[in-house]
Amino acid sequence: MWGLDRLFPPPIQVPYSTIVTAADGTTLHAFLSRDDKWRLYATLDEITPRMQQTILQKEDRWFRWHWGVNPVSMVRAAGRNLLSGKRTSGASTITMQVVRLLEPRPRTYGSKLIEIARAMQLEAHLSKDEILQLYLNLVPYGGNVEGIKSASLLYFGKPPQLLSLAEITALAIIPNRPSSLRLGEQNAAIVQARNAWLRRFAEAGTFDSTAINDALAEPLTAHRQPAPNLAPHLSLRLRAEQPHVPIIRSTLKPAVQTAAERLVRQYVDRVKGQNIHNAAVLVINNQTGAVEAYVGSADFGNTFDGGQVDGVRAIRSPGSTLKPLLYALAFDKGLITPKAKLNDVPTNFAGYEPDNYDRHFNGPVTAEFALANSLNIPAVKLLRDVSTPVFVAKLREAGFRTVQKQADDMGLSMILGGCGVTLEELTQAYTAFAAPQTTNGSLRRLRYTVNSRSTRDKAEGDDTSPTERLFSPEAAFLVTNTLTQLTRPDLPNNFDNSYRLPRIAWKTGTSYGRRDAWSIGYNRRYTVGVWVGNFSGVGVPELSGANTATPLLFQVFNAIDYNAPAGWFRPPVGGKLALRQVCPESGDVPRVDAPERTCVGRAVDYYIMGVSRSSPCQHQAVVWTNAVGTMSYCTYCRPTSGDSLTRAVARLYPNLAPEVVAWYAASHRPYAAIPPHNPACTRVFGQGAPPTITSLNAGSEYFIDPKSPADLALTCQTANDVQQVYWYLNDRLLRGAKPTETLFFRPTPGTLTVSCADDKGRVSKVRVLIKRG
């Protein structure tokens, strides 16, 4: 036998069809085998005792006792063949039939001898159960259908363990006559042959009379059905990753997957009139990291609208959906707290001038307001303070592979959608906010298949994917606390005060050109990601994260988690998160030692102990002026005595950032400007921030047309105490101007140094290059 194994190894490697099942074993999707057969792999668990009993009684009653060959049957068959002068019986055992199915040969005596040797070889390598399993996986049922599991699913629409005695008997007799007994075509003939064998079983006492009578009365309604085709995108993905695994057990839940597919299909049917043709949904279990629903498109069979594109893995622009990750990082670095003020005013970031979605500005706002309302300018400023490389590194930790590839080209625009991400990456990242309290802030890696180390006895859902710390529990809670607010612009129309509004935290995003609408939401149980748009990249004016993607997100949550247990995210226990009083005007700690009470009122704010900044509030500055407030003094020229008209008076003025001063002036909003400094003072100032030149942009190249030269504009932003600025071109005075005034000049080719000095002597410079166009 050893020599036979070396020369002719047993041919037990069978190219099975790939089956993708749900977490509970339900078949979701089946594929043709490499040789284009429906040859589905039946496990030993699916071969029931009744099925074994039926097959063995019909094909090989002595299967459990012989060693691959039944000599009594062979002698009997040989005698019959000699007496009749022709071949009437082959006396093949199930083991010999397996050999014939594995290695088809002409029906000759020489082939029979080879089958005998091969059968003995199989018996030496496989158990009886494994040989019977192999036989049931290979028996033909006509056409390209092989194996009892294939026939069960394709003709009866059920797994083999659910077959009745009548159905098992019908499937047992067809392999002997697969051409003349075709299910769905010759059902009457099959019933006749089936009943004949059922009567034989009754005579042999194989089954009791009740079971036989029920089987005889059972009609045969078998007909060819389409192969299971749920979750096609994930099924294709898993088969590509595991091409030689016959049964891939996914983590999908049939009820959740079916509901998600139905909702996506129905929703896209409703919005097709707006030229919106596709959507994708990903549902993640926060406790385990298991993906319970995976919908790559609205209709996999729709090739016109790109139905076979996997929207879960398609690279798209994220819009504003990365903002919560940036704010969490800023909380952890101590740059902001929820009540910290950020300036939402027009700002030039070295030539990059972003705008808000609604093209309106709000002035100084709190960080939580900026995040809840998805304001762009504060987010860009925050990214500048955090630094793009640091944020990209954090996204790399979170598994954003496309961002990692684009890291060298990333700029401030990435926080507004200037990069590529996938729905899979985004939804996975949000699991850090939705993690259980003990691991809040930890990213849970997604799991698409049931862990191979799990056993049959292990309770469902025990397997969990590994977690990695992405943010602190405190930062994760602060983000969640903000994203739960309902007073925000991305609440869909007609959902305010609606019973259909699930309790979730969510964030929306709309890409530039309205090509992608996103909505990522989570509660304690699930994190759900939704993308809506067109795979062609065509933008739609009506497309938005709030009114296009979020309604579908709400529908998914209401379908899969409507009766979720009560409870919500709570502040981390025993952590560093605490409350403190802050100045409502700045979000900073009030100054108790200030000469004047600069902070009126108090607000309560969360902060992370030992991390969050504790800067004293400086939103107002004490300025000495004359009695009527028309002139200011410095310590050098301030009068120390005099009557009520000439004595210096201490007043409070807002300590405004230059860009806020410029916005107030440009939008004609009143603010308390610091009076001009005493003209008689000869002191030279050097402290304080110099003017910020917002045009021209440092390091830029400007092209001019010699035939029709155009003027270039000069603009700047200054502190609240500046009344006059002076512009210089290559150290030559152009002229003085008001800080908010725009100057124009006619450039000439060459290197140009632009300088701006304020009336306090503070200077800033930029260098640009003028070229002929």
UniProtKB/TrEMBL annotation:
This is peptidoglycan glycosyltransferase. The keyword Protease applies. Residues 280-515 form the Penicillin-binding protein transpeptidase domain. GO terms for cellular component: outer membrane-bounded periplasmic space. Residues 687-768 form the Penicillin-binding C-terminal domain. Residues 26-200 form the Glycosyl transferase family domain. Its EC number is 2.4.99.28. It comes from the Bacteria. Residues 445-468 are annotated as: Disordered. InterPro entries: Beta-lactam/transpept-like, Glyco_trans_51, Glycosyltr_51/Transpeptidase, Lysozyme-like_dom_sf, PBP_1c, PBP_C, PBP_transglycosylase, PCN-bd_Tpept. NCBIfam families: PBP_1c. One of its GO terms (biological process) is proteolysis. Keywords: Carboxypeptidase, Glycosyltransferase, Hydrolase, Multifunctional enzyme, Protease, Transferase. In the N-terminal section; belongs to the glycosyltransferase 51 family. In the C-terminal section; belongs to the transpeptidase family. Pfam families: BiPBP_C (PF06832), Transgly (PF00912), Transpeptidase (PF00905). Pathway: Cell wall biogenesis; peptidoglycan biosynthesis. It is an enzyme of class 2 (transferase). It catalyses: [GlcNAc-(1->4)-Mur2Ac(oyl-L-Ala-gamma-D-Glu-L-Lys-D-Ala-D-Ala)](n)-di-trans,octa-cis-undecaprenyl diphosphate + beta-D-GlcNAc-(1->4)-Mur2Ac(oyl-L-Ala-gamma-D-Glu-L-Lys-D-Ala-D-Ala)-di-trans,octa-cis-undecaprenyl diphosphate = [GlcNAc-(1->4)-Mur2Ac(oyl-L-Ala-gamma-D-Glu-L-Lys-D-Ala-D-Ala)](n+1)-di-trans,octa-cis-undecaprenyl diphosphate + di-trans,octa-cis-undecaprenyl diphosphate + H(+). GO terms for molecular function: carboxypeptidase activity; penicillin binding; peptidoglycan glycosyltransferase activity. The keyword rRNA-binding does not apply.
